[in-house]
Amino acid sequence: MQSNSNYSIGTPGKPWGESERQTWREQTTIKREYQQEVIPKIEALGQRFNIEQYGALSYDEARYPLLCIKSKNWDSNKPTVLITGGVHGYETSGVHGAIKFMDTQAEKYQKDFNFIAAPCVSPWGYETINRWNPNAVDPNRSFYKDSPAEESSNLMKLVATLGDVLVHFDLHETTDTDETEFRPALAARDGANFVECTIPDGFYTVGDTESPQSEFQSAIIESVAKVTHIAPADDKGNLIDSPMIQPGVILYPMVKLGLCGGATNCTYGTTTEVYPDSPKVTDEECNDAQVAAIKGGLDYVIRHL
């Protein structure tokens, strides 16, 4: 239903201009540090993988280098797996789940795949616990030509160097703050009415409308169910206002919406959605759910190569 509550910035019904974006930006604060919490974990893998810088954010290039973790013995005869995390910087297990997979599991699969992981696509968003970048632009709606988000354009340039990508895991979370902060802010920014939504209680995946790969999604759900609970549909049969087309799975048109999940022409792609606000899970279990999602998907692909 529509909500009459007004966001603290802007005039109802009127899209933001630069002054509103500046006001929004000024209310953000650094809450955690990318250089302390993320980069050391990536660099610690440097003996086992190649750590490469694929760009830097112009907001502060020294503070926000963009790093990827890449298989040392890259073999053009093997299929490539891309793992992205932190496209929405506030979705913490996407970042740390990607790193944990590379640390604990990737080498077990390297006889079958090349791996490249970009664990923290939006480090400013990570530090300020934000969905948007400093320009109030959502990187995960900006994967298209002449992108307004440098987080997205830098990743697309990296993807363009990879050749064919067979599998892409884009690691996300759906949080309670999506409903209390980020979706109301979006409505205010665009001069639209805020329509309330129910946050799913549990893990789910988002497949591509154009290539659902239902069995691949099912394998992911089955693997994650061993770690955390899977989100049930609401009383309308939906998850996050989209029809649940199979247990724990919805579909979005990835390319049309400018989503990171559409950044490659992969055969197998999924966007994971962990629910970190459940009292049933810990932060580490959220990371483990991301790892389990990747493992379940890769085990399925290996069976069908």
TrEMBL record:
<dbReference type="GO" id="GO:0008270">
    <property type="term" value="F:zinc ion binding"/>
</dbReference>
<dbReference type="GO" id="GO:0016788">
    <property type="term" value="F:hydrolase activity, acting on ester bonds"/>
</dbReference>
<dbReference type="GO" id="GO:0006508">
    <property type="term" value="P:proteolysis"/>
</dbReference>
<keyword id="KW-0862">Zinc</keyword>
<dbReference type="Pfam" id="PF24827">
    <property type="entry name" value="AstE_AspA_cat"/>
</dbReference>
<keyword id="KW-0479">Metal-binding</keyword>
<protein>
    <recommendedName>
        <fullName>Peptidase M14 domain-containing protein</fullName>
    </recommendedName>
</protein>
<comment type="similarity">
    <text>Belongs to the peptidase M14 family.</text>
</comment>
<feature type="region of interest" description="Disordered">
    <location>
        <begin position="1"/>
        <end position="22"/>
    </location>
</feature>
<dbReference type="InterPro" id="IPR000834">
    <property type="entry name" value="Peptidase_M14"/>
</dbReference>
<dbReference type="GO" id="GO:0004181">
    <property type="term" value="F:metallocarboxypeptidase activity"/>
</dbReference>
<dbReference type="InterPro" id="IPR055438">
    <property type="entry name" value="AstE_AspA_cat"/>
</dbReference>
<keyword id="KW-0378">Hydrolase</keyword>
<feature type="domain" description="Peptidase M14">
    <location>
        <begin position="30"/>
        <end position="305"/>
    </location>
</feature>
